[in-house]
Amino acid sequence: MALLDTWTRGEHVDETGTGHPTYRRGEGPGIVLVHEIPGISPDVIGYAEELVAAGYTVVMPELFGRTEAPVGAASVARAMAQICVSREMSMLAAGETTPVAGWLRSLARDLHAELGGPGVGALGMCFTGGFALAMMVDDAVVAPVLAQPSTPFPLGRRRAGDLGLSPADLDRVKARAAGGCQVLGLRYRGDRMVGTRFETLTRELGDAFLRVDLPGSKHATLTLHRHQDAVDAVLGFFEDRLRR
């Protein structure tokens, strides 16, 4: 795993005994970067390195896929097969919070307890985009970023606008947003995978939802289809929220 040779591999185990590998590098305020499908790919690692170079401690949990496998049909199929049998993640359930959110919140709490400061950032991508919103339920997360959030998969009107949160978690997210915790969202306007959930976020969070709508119909705003406006927006958001 040459691309991760400079990263420290560890494991986080939460209070339920659930554990996942993690990769950590950097100094400064903490960011939990949750990889997209098919996993911690070279593109995700490259973006994580940019956050490290910008002065952040980045922790990448490994939730599925084969680490360092490039994006392709085989790696995507492998990751989807893992997700389909996982009890921690769901592709289709509406009005529910993904079970893995509890583990991610625990990881964020531990990172905040270690590093101090106002809190940590959480950045999810594609399949895990909404995970960052679910992590916001915990006070440790003060800078949630949703990059092209795509679950539940937008099959039908209800799922297309669903935020992947239980009613109780949505109420908590709305209360935190009303109290000043902003949420950054990134998407290409024509990306059908995002469905209508940006409209839902605007309706539910109001001015606390900061949306970046990029021109075109691409998908991966920070990696495969990287757009500099998205990259700059994330860095500015983390600078404002994590270095107070």
- SS class: alpha/beta
Tally of DSSP helical segments: 8
Q: If you compute it from the alpha carbons, what radius of gyration comes out, rounded to the nearest whole angstrom?
A: 16 Å
Determine the CATH topology.
Rossmann fold
Helicity, in percent?
Answer: 25-40%
Mean pLDDT: 96
CA-CA gap between termini? 36 Å
Content of β-strand: 15-25%
**CATH architecture designation:** 3-Layer(aba) Sandwich
CATH class: Alpha Beta
What string, H for helix and E for strand, traces the elements in order?
A: EEEHEHHEHEHHEHEH
Shape: globular
> Strand arrangement, largest sheet?
1-2-4-3-5-6-7-8
Multimeric state of these chains? Answer: single chain
| CATH homologous superfamily grouping | Alpha/Beta hydrolase fold, catalytic domain
Structurally, the number of domains stands at 1
- How many E-type strands? 8
* Main sheet record: 8 strands, mixed
The unreliable regions are none
Keywords:
244 residues, alpha/beta, Rossmann fold, 8-stranded mixed beta sheet, globular, hydrolase, Dienelactone hydrolase family protein, Dienelactn_hydro, hydrolase activity, AB_hydrolase_fold
Structural topology:
Blueprint: E1 8-13, E2 19-25, E3 30-34, H1 42-53, E4 57-61, H2 73-85, H3 100-115, E5 120-125, H4 131-135, E6 141-147, H5 157-161, H6 167-178, E7 183-188, H7 197-205, E8 209-214, H8 228-242
Parallel strand pairs: 3-4, 3-5, 5-6, 6-7, 7-8
Antiparallel strand pairs: 1-2, 2-4
Overview of this protein structure:
The protein is an alpha/beta fold. The protein has a single domain, classed as Rossmann fold. 36% of the residues lie in helices and 20% in strands. It contains eight helices and eight strands. An eight-stranded mixed sheet has the order 1-2-4-3-5-6-7-8, sandwiched between helices. A hairpin with a 5-residue loop joins strand 1 and strand 2. The N and C termini lie far apart (36 Å). The mean pLDDT is 96. Keywords: Hydrolase.
